[in-house]
Amino acid sequence: MSRDFGREKRLLTPRQFKAVFDSPYGKVPGRHVLLLARENDLQYPRLGLVIGKKSVKLSVERNRIKRQIRETFRHHQLELTGWDIVIVARKGLADLDNPELARQFVKLWKRLSRTPSKASAEPGAANTTHA
């Protein structure tokens, strides 16, 4: 799989965002950020960012944060295959410098990648054996 961040790897419509907000299967809280995830039945992950003026005042800071998040996402796509992910920024996120932002998101991606998929977590999933 390519490590690009093309249009197909982004959540674009309000409907796509709403699906994740309404029924997130994985929730990973971090410092100054909340990561919500939902399975997408695709061969690649998709990312959506919610970084409002309320939590990050300056547009240059919002843009810097988005660039950092997208870059770490790009490098960890293989571990995140099959997830739609929405990142919600909270106050204080702009106070982190780029290396700290990158470190935090690498940890968040790892925590999310360890979240079991719904299919393997359901009782009676495909991995049951009969004697």
Automatic annotation (TrEMBL):
Transmembrane domains' residue ranges? none
Catalytic class of the enzyme: hydrolase
Task: Give a GO molecular function annotation for the protein.
Answer: ribonuclease P activity
InterPro entries xrefs: Ribosomal_Su5_D2-typ_SF (IPR020568), Ribsml_uS5_D2-typ_fold_subgr (IPR014721), RNase_P (IPR000100)
- Give the catalysed reaction(s), semicolon-separated: Endonucleolytic cleavage of RNA, removing 5'-extranucleotides from tRNA precursor
Q: Can you supply a Gene Ontology BP term from the record?
A: tRNA 5'-leader removal
- Asked if tRNA processing is a keyword of the record, the answer is yes
Q: Which SUPFAM superfamilies match?
A: Ribosomal protein S5 domain 2-like
Which Enzyme Commission number(s) are on file for it? 3.1.26.5
Q: Name one GO cellular component term.
A: ribonuclease P complex
Which Gene3D superfamilies does the entry mention?
3.30.230.10
Query: Is RNA-binding found in the keyword set?
Result: yes
- Cited function: RNaseP catalyzes the removal of the 5'-leader sequence from pre-tRNA to produce the mature 5'-terminus. It can also cleave other RNA substrates such as 4.5S RNA. The protein component plays an auxiliary but essential role in vivo by binding to the 5'-leader sequence and broadening the substrate specificity of the ribozyme.
Report the family membership: Belongs to the RnpA family.
Subunit organization: Consists of a catalytic RNA component (M1 or rnpB) and a protein subunit.
Q: What is this protein called?
A: Ribonuclease P protein component
Q: Which organism is it from?
A: Stutzerimonas stutzeri
The taxonomic lineage of its organism, from the top, reads: Bacteria, Pseudomonadati, Pseudomonadota, Gammaproteobacteria, Pseudomonadales
